[in-house]
Amino acid sequence: MVTGETRESALARIGRALADPTRCRILTALLDGPAYPGRLAGELGLSRSNVSNHLSCLRGCGLVVAGYEGRQVRYEIADAHLARALSELVQVVLAVEPREECDPA
Prior knowledge:
By secondary structure, the chain is mainly alpha-helical. The chain is built from five helices and two strands, in the order H-H-H-H-E-E-H. InterPro entries: ArsR-like_HTH, HTH_ArsR_DNA-bd_dom, HTH_Metal-responsive_Reg, WH-like_DNA-bd_sf, WH_DNA-bd_sf.
């Protein structure tokens, strides 16, 4: 049985993962389907070690899963519900107009 605490914990994990722009870019790239760290690094203009570190974090949060194919590791979004939710969130983000930071002064 899923409890409120479990749901809150899952939302907190998602929030921590999405708090980093690089992890957001990786998750967005994985919306197109499974990928290898090297390909993601090339597509995103990042180092492979940087991508691997972020994938490790996303895996630890339970947002992505790894599948081993020989010596290569293929990553994909862990759950179809999460993929749909991220797809919806991306739509919202794309509709937001960039603006200057708030100035508290």
